[in-house]
Specification:
The structure holds 2 protein chains of 2 kinds. Chain A is an alpha/beta fold. Chain A folds into 2 domains: 146 residues, 2-Layer Sandwich (Nucleotidyltransferase, domain 5); 190 residues, ATPase, nucleotide binding domain (Nucleotidyltransferase, domain 5). Helices cover 38% and strands 19% of the residues of chain A. Chain A is built from 15 helices and 14 strands. An 8-stranded mixed beta sheet of chain A has the order 5-4-3-2-1-6-8-7, with helices on both faces. In chain A, helix 1 crosses helix 3 and helix 10 crosses helix 11. Chain A is globular and about 60 Å long. Chain B is of the alpha/beta class. Chain B has 2 domains: 187 residues, 3-Layer(aba) Sandwich (Rossmann fold), CATH 3.40.50.720; 103 residues, N-(1-d-carboxylethyl)-l-norvaline Dehydrogenase, domain 2 (Orthogonal Bundle), CATH 1.10.1040. Chain B is globular. About 2% of the residues of chain B have low confidence. Classes of the chains: A alpha/beta, B alpha/beta. At the A-B interface, strand 5, helix 1 and helix 8 of A face loops of B.
């Protein structure tokens, strides 16, 4: 596959497609970087499966759901491009208007510290990381191949979930397992949600009108998957997820930190194999496993309000784990200037934010309950003006970050 | 407004494609094998409609699948919502007309009578062909008969293929994809794609009685019976040797019990008829056990006795056959 003869837009007012290809889905957004707005977005779902469809929305118009056979990612992306250039649903007159495509790539291993322009060498390196993310990197690559096939002259950029955390020091990312296993298989902590942590840290500094380099930030990405990052001087110095997204915080259905002895004990007692053990820690555990109610925090909070004991316990455990990481990261960085909440739960659950932030006066954190109360999915400061730690809610926007990286890298090419 | 996905196709030829889609799979027969095939197909997100003889049987098959899925949940392999989705994709019926929209139909009937099942399976093939579209692929899960024998009953024999699952289909990661004399490339490629969709490895082969798996395992079971008759070792010792020594999932006797001794006998007779070789001639032990209704795990006694899905003891000893 050749990645030569790229057509580079000479003016930096770009239209950029952002693609997030999962194993059977493709999320996409079309950005107009000049106006800093999303022109269209959508989801291709059940790719290669029965019942496949595309849900497309031209911003400002109604969304449309189109069902039909979508045999693979290439077919799905062809339909997306067909929609984006159609008279009825599209925003583009022709493919010539597409200046670049940015891809979310889950695992860049130790090879990528930043987003990169995609070429043959990059593709080879992403392939080498398949062992580390067997479910995610292959569909990410399919998206890259499909664009290369259909739009061979359009520059493509890979934005890695792991890249932001590549600044972690060795003592933070190594596991205490035989060193030879690290050397042989690259087994270490990589962390995930990097694009989100990077975006909210930068955005927090912008809102506060401070230099990112002067801040010690702890970012909490609390969604169905959840992770926290210690961001010192704009760089990730530690993060809660590890080789896989199971480590760290308690999540909707994942255990988070767990004594490995527990797992081997369960495997022996319940006579289950590796694959089932994987399902156990990824799908049956976390908030769902503890409460037996749901993995959805809204349902758990509703049950707590009815005094459901296990819902109360689940929430206590969930918040406690986050608090432990706040303490750990304060120790790691020698203090905290900013604590940021993002992700579905972080943005929409005032009670989670309040429970996490209580009794942190010793850190200099003075929480403002009135600012926090009822606040959902809006940028805001929720600590008192005199607080030593500024607590913020910053809705994440990974797609915008991918588009911005793509613009930065492609614009640099013409210089 | 009539807007469709095809309106946005970059390649107009995608519009005509249509062939080789896999939206609905039919399964004829909900015995042990059929039931597990229905389950794994639905577990992979494909809609299934199955046919059995009576409404009562259909109900009981659905209940059995429900129970099997609950057991997986108890062992942490599945979530409740995944189970609901799997059950919602399965439909049971007694009417052939209900499989008319299937893209693939798998014959997996079990026949209790002794003797060859060719006629009964040919009859099923004809009934399938009478209702489905010309593009539908028709497969048989039988492993000891020749797919060409069954295909000869069809107007379009090129659409017939063997899809031989191995017991238990829910866990065994291979399926033998058998090419008959007239099976065409389109049918064969479709069958391979289907097996891959089940997350199993397709083993490609030309038709031969017993395929690879049955031909090899039948000779192993027969030879194990010889050892038993000669009084060399007990049922348990012979099984343990193969299980622990060679890492087989089941020893030959436990496997025979799981398959069902009546079925093992039938397969042996088929292979003996086809090859004429004594190595396939059924051991007298098997015949004797079948006559006494020691049919294996399904009736809780065969080479072993069973309770609560587990072996409790040997049902027979070597000295009985000396």
């Amino acid at each position: 596959m050749e990645f030569n003869n790229l057509k580079i837009n000479k003016v930096s007012l770009m239209k950029i497609i952002v693609l997030n290809c999962g194993s059977s889905s493709i999320k996409y957004q079309l950005f107009d970087m000049a106006r800093k707005e999303v022109l269209a977005k959508g989801l291709v779902d059940k790719v290669g499966l029965p019942g496949s469809y595309i849900k497309h929305e031209k911003c400002g118009d109604d969304s449309v759901k189109l069902e039909g056979e979508i045999i693979d990612h290439q077919a799905g992306i062809e339909y997306v491009l067909g929609l984006l250039t159609s008279k009825l649903r599209g925003n583009l007159k022709s493919f010539d208007e597409i200046d670049a495509v940015g891809h979310r790539v889950v695992h860049g291993g130790e090879k990528f510290q930043d987003s990169v322009l995609i070429n043959t060498e990059v593709v080879d390196k992403v392939k080498e990381c398949i062992d580390l993310a067997p479910l995610h990197n292959p569909p990410n690559l399919k998206g890259i191949y499909a664009i290369q096939e259909i739009l061979p002259n359009v520059p493509q950029v890979a934005v890695f979930d792991t890249a932001f955390h590549q600044t972690m020091p060795r003592h933070a990312y190594m596991y205490a397992i035989p060193y030879s296993l690290y050397a042989k298989y690259g087994l270490r902590r990589y962390g995930f949600h990097g694009t989100s942590h990077r975006y909210v840290a930068q955005r927090a500094a912008e809102i506060l009108k401070k230099d990112l380099c002067d801040l010690k930030i702890v970012t909490c990405h609390l969604g169905n998957g959840a992770s926290m990052t210690a961001v010192n001087c704009g760089k990730s110095v530690d993060t809660s997820m590890g080789l896989t997204p199971v480590e760290g915080l308690i999540m909707g259905t994942r255990t988070g930190d767990l004594d490995l002895g527990v797992l081997t004990h369960i495997m022996q007692k319940e006579e289950i194999d590796l694959q089932t053990a994987n399902t156990l820690i990824n799908k049956h555990s976390g908030i769902l496993g503890i409460t037996g109610i749901s993995s959805d925090m809204r349902e758990i909070e509703a049950a707590r309000d009815k005094n459901d004991e296990r819902a109360i316990l689940g929430l206590q455990m969930y918040n406690y784990r986050i608090r432990k990481y706040v303490g750990a990261y304060a120790a790691v960085m020698g203090g905290i200037d900013v604590l940021v909440f993002t992700g579905g739960v972080g943005e929409n659950s005032p009670s989670t934010r309040q429970e996490v932030c209580k009794d942190f006066e010793f850190l200099g954190l003075l929480f403002d309950e009135s600012k926090n109360k009822g606040l959902r999915a809006k940028e805001a400061i929720i600590s008192q003006d005199s607080s030593g730690v500024t607590v913020m809610v910053v809705p994440t926007n990974e797609e915008l970050m991918i588009a911005a990286d793509t613009e930065r890298i492609v614009s640099a090419l013409k210089k | 407004m009539g807007e469709s996905l095809a309106d946005y196709s970059l390649k107009k030829k995608i519009k005509e494609s249509g062939q080789g889609q896999l939206k609905l799979v039919g399964v004829i027969g909900g015995g042990t094998m059929g039931r597990e095939i229905i389950q794994i197909v639905s577990q992979r997100g494909i809609n299934v409609v199955f046919i059995d003889l009576t409404k009562e049987r259909v109900e009981s098959i659905l209940k059995d699948i429900d129970t099997a899925l609950s057991e997986i949940i108890n062992k942490w392999g599945l979530t409740q919502s995944e189970k609901r989705a799997i059950m919602s994709r399965i439909k049971g019926t007694t009417e052939y007309n209900d499989i008319r929209d299937c893209d693939l139909v798998i014959e997996s009937i079990s026949i209790r009578q002794r003797g060859s099942s060719v006629d009964a399976r040919q009859d099923v093939f004809k009934k399938i062909e009478a209702v489905v579209s010309p593009a539908t692929v028709i497969a048989s899960n039988n492993s000891s008969l020749m797919i060409s024998d069954l295909a000869s009953a069809l107007k379009h024999p090129e659409r017939a293929v063997g899809l031989s699952f191995i017991t238990p289909p829910t866990t065994v990661k291979i399926v033998e994809v058998v090419r008959g004399l007239e099976t065409n490339d389109k049918t064969y490629d479709f069958a391979i794609r289907f097996v891959k969709m089940l997350d199993k490895k397709p083993i490609t082969l030309y038709e031969s009685p017993g395929n690879i798996s049955t031909r090899l395992i039948i000779t192993l079971i027969n030879e194990a019976c010889e050892l038993l008759m000669e009084g060399v070792a007990s049922v348990q010792c012979i099984d343990e040797t193969m299980k622990i020594g060679y890492g087989l999932q089941f020893g030959p006797f436990e496997l025979a019990d799981r398959v069902g001794l009546d079925k093992v006998l039938k397969v042996m007779n088929n292979l003996y008829l086809e090859f004429g070789s004594d190595k396939f001639k059924s051991s007298p032990i098997i015949k004797r056990l079948v006559r006494a209704n020691f049919l294996g795990k399904k009736v809780l006694r065969g080479f072993y006795k069973y309770e609560n899905d587990k072996i409790i003891s040997q049902a027979i000893s070597a000295t009985e056959f000396k």
